[in-house]
TrEMBL record:
InterPro entries: CB, DNA_brk_join_enz, Integrase-like_cat_sf, Integrase_catalytic, Integrase_recombinase_N, Integrase_SAM-like_N, Recomb_XerD, Tyrosine_recombinase_XerC/XerD. Pfam families: Phage_int_SAM_1, Phage_integrase. GO terms for biological process: cell division; chromosome segregation; DNA recombination. This is Tyrosine recombinase XerD. Keywords: Cell cycle, Cell division, Chromosome partition, Cytoplasm, DNA integration, DNA recombination, DNA-binding.
Length: 298
């Protein structure tokens, strides 16, 4: 059986029956195409653990980070487990392969002062500026992933009598309702009144909340450019991405005393263990403050 044909079968199964997002399928395809290129014309039944280990070695030679190699193995493992489950092969060659060790990388968060400078550096005299300020304020206020932010529609933004909230659709199409603070709400209101109508007039009409200059839905790549331009205006020299605002939101909530379960719910983490990574960041800051401030710490 051809590996490429089986990969297509697995990806259809993953998208339709397991409900993985389009972005996840694109990432899976990239990893599995690399695996297919490595095994070449070998019969699927002849692939063994040695081949898998050699593949990981080749990825390391190509300069991939340990985290990327671990992810690549995870995708290949999922693929071969699917083949076993479907009775297409008799054994899983990845079963005995151990993922490379990885050090835990703590998420990069900006300081509150840096976030303030980033947000306030964005001019709001034009429809595009109003949009940029709104999406940056929203992502920091809610901890939204970039895909969640660009996937918002006008109907997802609603207000109720007690708490202003927004509905985010995360991984696996799971929805969650998160609060929106005053600054983000004011930025959204300004964009909806003075920015979005002007951008919408340049296109054919769409329910998407955030629009490009030609009236089409904003892309994830656009948001990367928006935040990097804002960082340059704010003289932030570290490399940041939309995910940096998510990290900053979580870190600042925990430093402010928010319960970890509340932060887990806001971020849409399936496991609280993922959220606990941010407690390590706040713990590092506490330790550093102690070492530099306490007279008997050194």
């Amino acid at each position: 059986m051809e590996v490429t044909r089986l990969i297509e079968q697995f990806l259809r199964h993953t998208a339709l029956e397991r409900g993985r997002s389009a972005n996840t399928i694109v990432a899976y395809r990239r990893d599995l195409d690399r695996w297919a290129a490595f095994v070449g014309t070998r019969a699927i039944e002849s692939i063994d653990s040695v081949a898998v280990t050699d593949y990981l070695t080749s990825l390391r030679r190509d300069g991939l980070a340990t985290s990327s190699i671990t992810r690549a193995l995870s995708v290949v493992r999922s693929f071969h487990r699917y083949l076993v489950t479907e009775g297409l092969v008799s054994s899983d060659p990845t079963g005995a392969v151990i993922a490379p060790g990885r050090t835990q990388r703590l998420p990069k968060a900006l300081s509150i002062e840096e976030v303030t400078a980033l947000l306030e550096s964005t001019p709001t005299e034009t429809p595009v500026g109003l949009r940029d300020r709104a999406i940056l304020e929203l992502m920091y206020a809610t901890g939204a992933r970039v895909s969640e932010a660009v996937g918002l529609t006008v109907d997802d933004v609603r207000a109720d009598e007690v708490l202003e909230v927004i509905t985010l659709t995360g991984k696996g199409n799971k929805q969650r309702v998160v609060p929106v603070g005053r600054f983000a709400r004011e930025a959204l209101d300004a964009y909806l009144v003075r920015g979005r109508p002007a951008l919408l007039a340049n296109g054919r009409g769409t329910p998407a909340l955030f629009l490009g200059a030609r009236g089409a839905p904003l892309s994830r790549q656009n948001v990367f450019l928006i935040i990097r331009a804002a960082a340059a205006r704010a003289d932030i020299t570290s490399t940041i991405s939309p995910h940096t605002l998510r990290h900053s939101c979580a870190t600042h909530l925990l430093r402010g005393g928010a319960d970890i379960r509340v932060v887990q719910e806001m971020l849409g983490h399936a496991s609280v263990a993922t959220t606990q990574i941010y407690t390590l960041v706040t713990r590092d800051a506490l330790t550093e403050a102690y070492r530099t401030s306490h007279p008997r710490a050194r």
